[in-house]
Amino acid sequence: MQFFELFYTFFYIGIVTFGGGYAMLPLIQSTVLDKGWMPHEQLVDFVAISESTPGPFAINIATYIGAERCGVLGSVCATLGVVMPSFIIILLVARVYEKFNSNRIVKGVMTGLKPAVIGLIASAVLTIGKTVLIPDVTTFMGVFSKDILSLELLCSLIIFALGLFLILKKKAHPILVIALSAILGILAGYFIL
Predict the structure, then answer these.
(1) Angle between helices 21-34 and 2-16 (to 10 degrees)
(2) Which of 9, 89, 103, 120 pairs with 131 at a CA distance of 20 to 30 A?
(3) What is the pTM of this model?
(4) How far apart, in whole angstroms, are the C-alpha atoms of residue 146 and residue 63?
């Protein structure tokens, strides 16, 4: 029964979201947390791992969540669930692509979906950023405490700023930024934190 639930859940997520894995992230997050499959901190770790490993983000996160829930068979069910909607839709759309490509209504729908996808991605960034940078939200919402302004937060902000600078100003390759961030995180964890 858990295998079917994994398949169905990720099939549903795959069929109702547009824009790829990052657009799926808010729905994955709310579904996984509502079902109590894992705590928020563990989900944030899975997001980081899914982003850092090769392959599409949605497939990676579905595979990790499925494996966490039900082992190897669970990862297969979750992965098939998230892939099947796209596979079916692509097969159907490919047959009639030329007719839909020039249709004004379809162009309008696609134009309207682009900002919505950006909004979903921004929502995921803010939610994950809040968890990573401000781990104790209740303290933050009340009164600032010394826990909020910790050395771990300072190191995280420095690594974030450095990564953003390298990508935006120096046009560094994302793999280089990920590797450098991992090295800096390891060094900070070993020597500072």
Answers:
(1) 140
(2) 9
(3) 0.64
(4) 38
